Amino acid sequence: MTMKIENIIQKIKSDTGFTPIMAAELEFYSGDETLETIREKLRQNKIPVIKIEREKGLSQFEIALPPTSDIAALAGNIARAKEVISGDFSAKPDENQPGSGLHIHLSLHDKSGKNIFAKAGDAEALEMLYAIGGLLAVLPESMIYFAPNADSYKRFTANYHAACETYDNAPTKICWGGNNRTAAIRIPESTASPENRHIEHRVPGADADPFAAIAAILAGAHYGLMNQINPPEKIYGNAYEPQYKSAKLPGNLAEAERLSREGSILKN
User: Fold this and answer.
1) Are 87 and 54 contacting, i.e. CB atoms less than 8 angstroms apart?
2) CA 41 from centre of chain
């Protein structure tokens, strides 16, 4: 896939009339820097963040970058954060600790600025379902952009880590759910603010190139919208459990490279 973020956004705007809004959460390990040091480095480098907090792993942190329509700038800020913070941005630096993800959040706004994913009543917005359908359809061939290194695939487990009393909470299957951190595509809880309803893509690792990962997500959403791709049945329980028959994510770099070569959606 050679298409740039700006070109995909223009296609979405011209084909649908919608403007993508995206945000991000970047997890990493830092053995040397304190929360205050990390915050100061981001401030000095003018990298906007909503919050910086400790994550479940020992010495693991997460920074949340705010929603924006300037998505190329968002990708640039993620890349710069990885440069200025003295941290470990491997997807799975320690097999006894949770992996680190780059969670990408997406909503679409119409020309009046209204979020078209906003939920009215019990039904999901049709456009949201189509976007989810497209994202899941392209997941196999886009995996190379979310997990670009051999070690990236160590993150996709359901292991429990006694040292920090938590599960990996990384996706292992091609599925979606509500406020469900075991699913590849999550719809965060938004009962209190339905106008902020959005998609959270939980597959990219902290080691992903943010420009490539975000471009692949935008392309998948565009594909789903244009082809009205209905997603599979929503997962309500633990997606790791065997009764859910969802296909597995590609399990290694060689498989991801093959699926990327053989794929046709992202090449269009």
Assistant:
1) no
2) 24
Amino acid making up residue 153 = Y
Q: Which amino acid does the sequence have at 42?
A: L
- pTM of the full predicted structure? 0.95
> Could you give the CA distance from residue 224 to residue 134 in angstroms, rounded to a whole number?
4
Q: What is the DSSP letter of 267?
A: T
Residue count (the chain):
268
- How many angstroms separate the CA atoms of 3 and 75, rounded? 15
Taking only Cα atoms into account, the Rg of the chain, rounded to an integer number of angstroms, comes to 18
Which residues does 11 contact at the CB level (< 8 Å), separation at least 6? 222
| Residue in 69, 205, 223 with CA at minimum distance from that of residue 148 | 205
pLDDT at residue 232, as a whole number: 94
Secondary structure element (H or E) that encloses residue 128, with its range: helix 126-146
- Whole-number average pLDDT of the chain: 92
DSSP 8-class letter at 248: B
